[in-house]
Structures are given as C-alpha cells and as structure tokens.
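Fig. S4 source data, part A: sequence.
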Amino acid sequence: MSSNWHRRLVELVRRLRRGRSLGERGEALAARWLRRHGCQIIARRCRGHLGEIDLVAVEKRTVVFVEVKTRQSQDAGHPGDAVDVPKQRRLTRLAVAYLRKHDLLEYPARFDVVAVTWPHRRHKPIIEHFPRAFEAVGYDGLFS
C-alpha cells in the first residue's frame, strides 16, 4: 500500500509542477493534506481589499483560515516565520470580513499556518501544519 501511496504522491507532484508557481503548488498540496486530515476546503484565494486568504476550511463546526507559506529551503528561516504580526493583523481583518459576508460570525474560527518546504528537484515536500498558529489580532474575544 505504501508504494501505491508513493506513486500517487509522485504523480501529484508532477501534475502540480506543470505551469504553476511554487506558491500555487504549495497551496494545492496544503489543501489536499488538510482534506486528508478532516478539513473540508470551502474557498481558495479569497481576495479582499487588504489582501488574500489562501484557504478557508471547515473542521467540524469551526471555520479555519489557513495561511500557506511555501519555500524551497529554510535558509532565510522557517516558512511559518513569514506570518508576522502585521500579516496576522491583515488576516484577522480579512477573516472578519469573510465571516460577515457569509453570515458566519456565530461560528468559532481559528487561524492555521501550513508551512511547505519543497527543495528544488526533490519529489517529496515537507508539510508542517500548525493549528491555532495565532490568535485574532486586534479583535479580542471575537473567536472562540
């Protein structure tokens, strides 16, 4: 069974590499990984006036806002380190706007980060999922 899984992963990597940026490939891989671990992806690349939410998912009754960071190496630091406080503040504002727009303010929400390190010429990326990576910035008590 593991060789079948490996073959499927290699084929996925090949498909993902065709014509897409590293970031796009990382987001697609993160979405697939999250689905395998119980999340339902409900939106991708949600644009707002402040930026973009990479993935919006639902896990049980919780709305999960996912920031995906993909790098070829960790030479400049861990990919997750790029989600600094200003980025967290923007994501919080985007998430609140999304919840309002879709009448979801009464549901619990959280922010996850998925870090993908995908070295050049390597078939198997390293995927790290950080649930509840940060609390809402600037909206104390809004999320549970």
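Fig. S4 source data, part B ends here. DSSP finds three helices and five strands in the chain.
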